Amino acid sequence: MVETLTKDTFLEKVFNYEENNEFKYTGKLPAIIDFYADWCSPCKMLAPILEQLSEEYKEKIVIYKVNTEVEQEVSAIFGIRSLPSLLFCPINEDPQMATGALPKVKLEQIINDVLKVSK
């Protein structure tokens, strides 16, 4: 299941930017963070794909959503300028950002290559 994060849950589960200047993912499983807005058509197209992936990769990765309209501070920290923006957070490696409603096949490739997770 995809979980929507608030600023507080983002600080707790992903990265505490109030205490650290350099990004350090604090989660236990690799993550995808979807920066979206309710009015964004490509975001709406991406949402069911992310739900499918959260089921298919259950207990291997976590998928979070951040509503850029509500959590403007979190969005600003990451310089989100286009939607959807996806932040891929592997364990102990640098995160990578992608923009646009990527097809499921491309997301699976990124999960495999960047997050180092296979089905």
Description of the structure:
By secondary structure, the protein is an alpha/beta fold. The chain has four helices and five strands, in the order E-H-E-H-E-H-E-E-H. The chain has helices spanning 7-13, 41-56, 72-77, 104-113; strands spanning 3-4, 31-36, 62-67, 85-89, 96-99. A five-stranded mixed beta sheet has the order 1-3-2-4-5. Strand 2 (31-36), helix 2 (41-56) and strand 3 form a beta-alpha-beta unit. The longest helix has 16 residues, at 41-56. The radius of gyration is 13 Å and the shape is globular. The two termini are 16 Å apart. The model has no long low-confidence stretch (mean pLDDT 96).
Defining traits:
alpha/beta; 119 residues; 4 helices
The shape is globular
Question: What percentage of residues falls in helices of 4 or more residues?
Answer: 25-40%
Q: How many strands in all?
A: 5
Helix-strand topology string? EHEHEHEEH
The rounded distance between the terminal residues' Cα atoms is: 16 Å
* Average pLDDT over all residues: 96
Tally of individual helices:
4
